[in-house]
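subagent[fold] <- orchestrator: predict structure for attached chain, return tokens only, no commentary.
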Amino acid sequence: MWVCLGCRRGEDMYCENGVFPGLNVEGGFADYLLTNERSLIKLAPGLEPKDVAALADAGITAMRACKKAARLLTAGTRCVVMGVGGLGHIAIQALKAMTPVEIIAADVNEGARKLAEETGADHVIEAGEGVVDRVMALTGGVGVEAVLDFVGERGCPPRSRTCCARAVPTTSSATARRWRSRTGSS
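subagent[fold] -> orchestrator:
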């Protein structure tokens, strides 16, 4: 069986033969849905689909960014998770499960920072003005290997690239382009 390049890379959204229920075939709100085995996950006994439904969207988004970043995040490395709301708290848990990275979570919201602590961030700092200085102080001026931006609405602070020791953001290519244009990095 031939598998397209997008699928071989694990980039399902770029599948040349992609079938997405509710988008290009019927089924988004149907009682039954035609799918393949690769798209199914067996739920543990007693786990209700409604309790994990958000993971099918938000979870996959955060997991995809974490999988890309994981290549850089070996023992002794650090990663900033910018924005700990709907996606960031899932990313913290995924990074903890997939890598030995030291996680620095940053958010402007006090409730989100508390959530970051509860979900396993090693350090929690206030985002906003001065966040780069706080990251640099926390890392002894060394910086981090990756920044995962789950905020997006205003992008990362202009100097954010300076807190990366040797990596660019690993979220979407659009985020990476915005990051480069705002920081002047290539």
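orchestrator: received. Logging for downstream: The radius of gyration is 18 Å. The longest helix spans residues 58-70.
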